[in-house]
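Supplementary Note 3. Input sequence used for the single-chain structure prediction.
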Amino acid sequence: MKTLVALLAGVAGLVVSLAHAQSGDASFEQVERGRYLAVLGDCAACHTTATGKPLAGGVVLKTPFGDLVGANITPDPDTGIGRWTLDDFQGAMSQGISRGGYHLYGAMPFTAYTKVTKEDNAALWAYLRTIEPVNNPVVPNQLPFPFNIRLSLVGWNFLNFTKGEFQPDPAKSVEWNRGAYIVQGLGHCGSCHTPKSLTGGDKNGQFLQGGTLDNWYAPDITADAHKGIGSWSSDDIVQYLKTGANRFDIASGPMAEMVEKSSQYWTDPDLKAVATYLLSVGGGGTSAPAPIAADDKGMAAGKAIYADRCAACHIGSGEGVPNLFPKLASAPLVNNDDATTLIRVVLAGGVAGATNAVPTAPAMPSYAWNLSDEDVANVLTYVRNSWGNSAPRVSPTDVATLRKQLQQ
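The predicted structure, written as discrete structure tokens, is reproduced below.
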């Protein structure tokens, strides 16, 4: 059913695109390229709500400074971007300056989109002009004072933004350069997977080494063998992005959304290019810590909890069940310094992504109701220091803090 709906939506999009192409607005090929670029950039993630019309805005984006809301980017002249020109759109993408000259907040990842070529922006713009105009007033800036004052963004840009299109590296292959262009540009992978500074900008010196946003931890996706995906093959990365699962992991949370709405529809050459590039990105270079001793009091308590609550699905050896229950042994997310996502999933549960290739979306129940903060800390400390894993101890205080935040 899901495949049929997607197919019908695609056919409808082609018909609309063809109609506009015939009207002389843009060529059919350019509009179709723009449609693919919109998928590649996962525009729907921030501009389409679960029940709303495509790209009509309204998605609430939680930031450390307050809420921002994804804008209406349909061609509606009153509440969307119907009065914009291509130059206006190019300014927003490449400079973070919207129509009228006001600065955009970094939640719109223009710091990555600045790398997109003018040709690709023109195609994306041509596509956006073909979608259904939706009258949906959205107030994007809902930040409290003083963060709601856009003039402050001049200083923010000075600290955090470097303008300029992607420049291919002549010493690298065409495939590598294509992967770099996607990851650094429209894919804006660093928006989640790169640590943030106190001002909310990317710490570019730690590109793709993991970042925390909205009570989720986006793990290290560099070639680091311990914390990152250095032990994954190119085919493993392609499979993960295409299906939401591979022999190491299953996508969940915001990543599941990204796979469902975006990467499962990328072309095979683009998936391979991204894999090639990611496996070339160096990690932090730090050595893996020594695992906490098995006879540690917290480890012993965690082992008992794991056997009682976790082993039925994840197996006593932490190997999980391929494409059904995630592998915990030697898992990058498990080995990262930040345990936010692990704590969250134990407390709140989670649902894996469902794709056309892997339609089953396994779920994990919440254990917040019958595991104390100390229990959660102990079982995660055990998982993070067993079966080849080694990572810092999880603190009951960290669990209590996140539990409180999830209840708000």
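The longest strand covers residues 60-63. The mean pLDDT is 89.
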